[in-house]
Specification:
By secondary structure, the protein is an alpha/beta fold. It contains nine helices and eleven strands. It binds S-adenosylmethionine (SAM). The site of S-adenosylmethionine has 24 residues, from helix 6 and strand 4.
């Protein structure tokens, strides 16, 4: 199945006539991901070291803050088959169709689809989209803040591997995801490993001198996630930890 076919099929599965929109949008270049970036370095997530790492299937790769703080990115795990913590997420995707926001190389999209639940990945990185497609997953090269197929009809959305940081404003992102899921829909979201509530500017680096442009990012620990969820119309139904990672299941009120 191609990305285009996948998006169209999922739009249909979501009970919408958004197939045409999905086709059009699947041909659209990446939109909001490039907003607010300094010229002169590769765009974040798109043609910076992230793409090269995804093509190679390995790091080293880091998010670096201006003050020197360094967060290692687990490219090898993202490019591998789902581990036990991921599998726990897959089996919580009971309500389809599922939208994996910032799907990266697509291990979750492919695994969810393999259970028979329709799943679509969305990611701004062409390298991530290519890998997801290669893994057999349906995927769109698009920002979560762009128009998406079947808005308001997704049964479950995912924000995994720190993706609650996308855009650097978790409340804006949670509100946006609230527009995407159906009434009573679910959001499975990963929190940081400990209690932080941070918004900052980072860039992707490979530790060997190559880096992309600055972009906004955020990190929320479990307590901050709970508060942000409550502020944006989500109810925290459950929280759990697996392999040192923290997750929450939010329900759309
Ligand atoms: C921390 S990585 C997460 C990787 C992914 N969850 C996985 O399983 O490999 C963040 C991902 O979000 C994507 N991303 C960043 N901004 C985005 C946006 N506005 N809309 C959709 N995806 C975005 C990046 O391209 C990247 O693949």
């Amino acid at each position: 199945m191609t990305a285009l076919d996948g998006a169209t099929a999922l739009a249909t599965a979501a009970g919408t006539a958004a197939g045409t929109a999905a086709r059009t949008a699947a041909r659209t270049a990446v939109g909001t991901a490039t907003i607010g970036q300094r010229p002169g370095a590769p765009a974040p997530w798109i043609d910076d070291p992230y793409s090269q790492a995804l093509r190679a299937g390995r790091g080293p790769l880091f998010l670096r803050r201006a003050d020197g703080w360094l967060l290692p990115l687990d490219v090898e795990r993202w490019c591998a088959a789902p581990d036990a913590a991921d599998t726990g997420l897959v089996y919580r995707c009971l309500r389809g169709p599922v939208l994996d926001i910032g799907c990266g190389p697509g291990r979750l999209v492919a695994a969810i689809a393999a259970t028979g639940v329709p799943a679509l990945g969305v990611d701004v990185s062409p390298a991530a989209v290519a890998r997801t497609r290669g893994a057999g997953g349906a995927v769109l090269c698009r920002s979560v803040f762009d128009r998406l197929p079947a808005e308001g009809r997704w049964g479950t959305a995912l924000l995994v591997d720190g993706n609650v940081g996308i855009g650097g404003d978790p409340r804006a992102l949670l509100a946006r995801v609230g527009e995407l899921v159906a009434p009573g829909g679910r959001l499975l979201v990963e929190a940081a490993a400990y209690d932080v509530d941070e918004r900052f500017t980072v860039r992707v680096e490979d530790g060997r001198g190559r880096h992309g442009r600055d972009f906004p990012w955020a990190r929320l620990g479990p307590a901050a996630l709970r508060a942000a969820a409550a502020d944006t119309g989500w109810t925290t139904a459950e929280e759990w930890s697996a392999d040192g990672r923290n997750f929450a299941e939010l329900w759309r009120c």
